[in-house]
Write a structure and sequence with these properties.
With 344 residues, the chain is of the alpha/beta class. It has one domain: TIM Barrel (Alpha-Beta Barrel). Helix content is 44%, strand content 12%. It has a six-stranded parallel β-sheet with strand order 2-3-4-5-6-7. The longest helix is centred in the N-terminal third of the chain and has 19 residues. Bound molecules: 5'-deoxyadenosine (5AD) and FE2/S2 (inorganic) cluster. 5'-deoxyadenosine (5AD) binds next to loops. The site of 5'-deoxyadenosine (5AD) has 12 residues, from loops.
C-alpha cells in the first residue's frame, strides 16, 4: 500500500483498481504515512499559509430534492429564507473588514435569479476589486454560466457528488442527472472559471469502487478546487437513518487528493469539523489548505441545515474568523489576507 502512495507522490497516475485498493487498505498507519507526504507536498507550494473564504449562505430555498440534503424541496420542516442583495452586500462589507478577500455565495438551486446573481457579482467586483467571487448555486444552462462569468465571477463550486452514474441515481431523484452534472462541470471549466468539484465520504450506497471512480475522475478533470466532507444524516430526509461518514477516511482521502494534485485548493470542510471537534485541524494536517468560515447573518444560520448538528451556527462572523485563526495557529499555520488563488 505504501508503494501505491509513493507512486502517487511521485506524480504517477494510478488505475481505478489501485485507487480502490488504497481505499480498502485504509488503516490509521497508512493514513499517517499519506498525511506526512501530503503535508510536505503542500508545504513546498503553499508553505504554512492557509487561505480563507467567507461563506455566505444566500438562501435555503431549493428546487431540487437530493435525498441526502436537509434543504431539499420536500423538507417541509425547514423554515425557508433568501437574503436580499442588500443583506448579501452587508455580509461582504463585514467580511472585507475582517480580512476576507474571497466571498463564496452559496445557496439552494433557484434561490437567486440569474439577473440577481449577475447584478450582485458586478456590484461586489466593483466595490471590492481586490476580492475574488466564488459562486456555488448549482446547475444552470451553459449560457447562464457564461453570463455569470462575464459579470466577473472568478470561481464556481459544484460538487459532482459521485463519479459513479449508478450511485448518482441512488442519491438523487430522476429529475436530476449525472450527465447534466458533468455537462455543468465541463462548461464551467471551458468558460474559464476556477472550477471546484467534490463528493461526500460515506454517503449511502458508496463503495470503495465508487470512491475509486471519484479519485479517477478528479485525476483526469484536474479541478482547481475540490471539496470533500463526511456525509452526515439530516433527520427529515430519506437518508435520515443512515450512518454518517468517517472523519478519518475523509482525512486519508484529503491526503490522496493532495498527492494527486499538489497545487489544488482543498478545504477542510464544516462537515469535517462537525464529525470531529478537531476535524478541520486534522484536515489541514492531512493536506487541506483552505478554510471557509461562515459570514452568513446569525439570524438565518440555523436554517441552512444541510445536515444535523452543524457547527458554527451560533457564532458571529467576527468570532468565527477569530476562532479559525486560533485553530490554525494552534497547529502552526497562518490564515492569510488575500484572494488565495491557486499557485501553479
Ligand atoms: N451531509 C454532508 N454533506 C452534505 N451536502 C449536502 N447534504 C449533506 C449532508 N447531509 C453537501 C453536498 C453539497 C454541499 C453543498 O454540501 O455535497 O454539494
Ligand atoms: Fe466558526 Fe469556530 S470556525 S466558530
Amino acid at each position: 500500500m505504501r508503494r501505491l502512495i509513493d507512486r502517487l507522490a511521485a506524480g504517477e497516475r494510478l488505475t481505478e483498481a489501485e485507487y480502490a485498493a488504497l481505499v480498502t487498505g485504509f488503516t490509521p498507519e497508512l493514513a499517517q504515512y499519506a498525511a506526512a507526504l501530503a503535508d510536505d507536498a503542500r508545504k513546498k507550494i503553499y508553505g504554512n499559509r492557509i487561505f480563507v473564504r467567507g461563506l455566505i449562505e444566500v438562501g435555503n430555498r431549493c428546487k431540487n430534492d437530493c435525498y441526502y440534503c436537509g434543504i431539499r424541496r420536500s423538507n417541509a420542516t425547514v423554515p425557508r429564507y433568501c437574503l436580499t442583495p442588500e443583506e448579501i452586500l452587508g455580509c461582504c462589507a463585514e467580511g472585507h473588514a475582517l480580512g476576507f478577500r474571497t466571498f463564496v455565495l452559496q445557496g439552494g438551486e433557484g434561490c437567486l435569479s440569474l439577473e440577481t446573481v449577475c447584478g450582485l457579482v458586478r456590484r461586489i467586483k466593483r466595490d471590492y476589486p481586490d476580492c475574488a467571487v466564488t459562486l456555488s448555486l448549482g446547475e444552470f444552462p451553459t449560457e447562464a454560466y457564461r453570463a455569470m462569468r462575464e459579470a466577473g465571477a472568478d470561481r464556481y463550486l459544484l460538487r459532482h457528488e459521485t463519479a459513479d452514474p449508478a450511485h448518482y441515481r441512488r442519491l438523487h431523484p430522476a429529475s436530476m442527472s449525472f450527465e447534466n452534472r458533468m455537462r455543468c462541470l465541463r462548461d464551467l471549466k471551458a468558460l474559464g472559471f476556477q472550477t471546484g468539484c467534490g463528493f461526500m465520504v460515506g454517503s449511502p450506497f458508496q463503495t470503495p469502487q465508487s470512491l475509486a471512480k471519484d479519485l479517477k475522475f478528479i485525476e483526469g478533470f484536474q479541478p482547481e478546487m475540490c471539496g470533500i466532507g463526511p456525509f452526515l444524516p439530516q433527520k427529515d430526509t430519506p437518508f435520515g437513518a443512515y450512518p454518517g461518514g468517517s472523519g478519518e477516511l475523509t482525512c486519508f482521502l484529503l491526503s490522496l487528493l493532495r498527492l494527486m494534485h499538489p497545487h489544488m485548493l482543498i478545504p477542510a470542510t464544516t462537515a469535517l469539523g462537525t464529525v470531529d471537534p478537531h476535524g478541520r485541524e486534522k484536515g489541514i494536517l492531512a493536506g487541506a489548505n483552505v478554510v471557509m468560515p461562515n459570514l452568513s447573518p446569525t439570524s438565518e444560520r440555523k436554517k441552512y441545515a444541510l445536515y444535523d448538528h452543524k457547527i458554527c451556527t451560533g457564532d458571529e462572523s467576527a468570532q468565527c474568523i477569530a476562532c479559525m485563526r486560533a485553530r490554525m495557529a494552534s497547529i502552526g499555520f497562518a490564515v492569510t489576507v488575500d484572494r488565495g488563488d491557486i499557485i501553479l
